[in-house]
Amino acid sequence: MDEARFVRIFDVNVFGVYRINKVFKPLLFTGSRIIITTSELAPLDPLPFTGIYGITKTTLEKYAFSLRQEAQLLDIPVSVIRPGAVKTGLLNISNIALERFHAKTELYKSTAGNFKNIVDSVEAKHVPAEKNCRACT
Predict the structure, then answer these.
(1) Do residues 68 and 77 touch, judged by C-beta distance below 8 A?
(2) 63-85 core/surface letters (b: 16 or more CB in 10 A; e: else)
(3) Disulfide: which of 58, 81, 99, 120 matches 43 by Cβ 3.0-4.6 Å?
C-alpha cells in the first residue's frame, strides 16, 4: 500500500470523526449524546489484507471510549455502534479492490481467494442503512 492511501484511510476513519466532533462540540449541552459508528469485525479480529482498515477502526473505538470517559464529566454519553456490513455505495468497494488484487497477485493467490469468500459471506449479511439510522433515534 502506498503512503497516500495509508494516510487517506486514517484521515477518513479517524481524523474525520475527530473533526466532526470538534465542529459540533459547541452545540452540545447537558443531555446531548455523541454516537460514533465503527465496524463490527474490523477492530476485533483483523483479517488478511485489511490490516490498516482494522487499525483505524481499533483506533476509532479507543478514541470513542476515551471520549466517553471525558464527556461523562459533562453529562454527555458517548455510544459506539457496531453495525457490521451496511448496504451503502461503499459496500462493494472492498470486493472490487480484492478482485483486482487477486487478479494481480501470484504470492497471495489462494489466500486472497479464501479471504474473498470470507468478505462475501460477511457482506451477504448486510443490513440496510435505514435500520442503523432508526437505532440512533
Answers:
(1) yes
(2) bbeebbeebeeeebebebeeeeb
(3) 58
Under a CB-based contact definition with an 8 Å cutoff, are residues 15 and 9 in contact? Answer: no
Could you tell me the CA-to-CA distances from 121 to 4, 21, 35, 67 in Å, in that order? 30, 33, 27, 33
* Contact (Cβ atoms closer than 8 angstroms) between residue 38 and residue 64: yes
State the burial class of residue 39 (Cβ atoms within 10 Å of its Cβ: 0-12, 13-18, 19+): buried
51-104 pLDDT tens trace: 788 888 889 989 999 999 999 998 999 988 887 666 666 666 667 777 787 788
| pTM score, whole prediction | 0.71
Distances from the Cα of 40 to the Cαs of 20, 85, 89, 103, 119, in angstroms? Answer: 21, 8, 18, 28, 13
- The helix (H) or strand (E) run that includes residue 67 is helix 51-71
User: Is there a contact between 38 and 80 (Cβ–Cβ < 8 Å)?
Assistant: yes
